[in-house]
Specification:
This protein has about 80 residues and is of the alpha+beta class. The protein is about 20% helix and about 20% strand. It has a 3-stranded mixed beta sheet, covered by helices on one side. Strand 1, helix 1 and strand 2 form a beta-alpha-beta unit. The longest helix has 9 residues. It is elongated and about 60 Å long.
Length: about 80
């Protein structure tokens, strides 16, 4: 992968050119002088999120019997 470094002090009119480079597979690093600020990398298509699997951690959480009951007035009045 090709890497291009660009100082953010350069004219912001470069954005379309930089995005074109990224679309071609070039990684763009934005700097402020010698300080690295950000990195723009190509996204190779839609990134897939891992599929969630129910039941992987049984017993890791629990729900109390009254979790959906209204909170007492003391809670809302700051007296609890």
């Amino acid at each position: 992968m090709t890497i291009t470094t660009v100082d953010v002090r350069d004219p912001q009119t470069q954005l379309p050119r930089l995005l074109a480079l990224v679309a071609e597979g070039t990684e763009v690093i934005l700097t402020d002088g010698a300080k690295t600020l950000a990195r723009i990398v190509p996204m190779n298509g839609e990134q897939e999120r891992p599929q969630r699997i129910a039941g992987l951690h049984p017993g890791a959480i629990w729900t109390s019997e009254d979790f959906d009951e209204p909170l007492p007035d003391e809670f809302w009045l700051g007296e609890a």
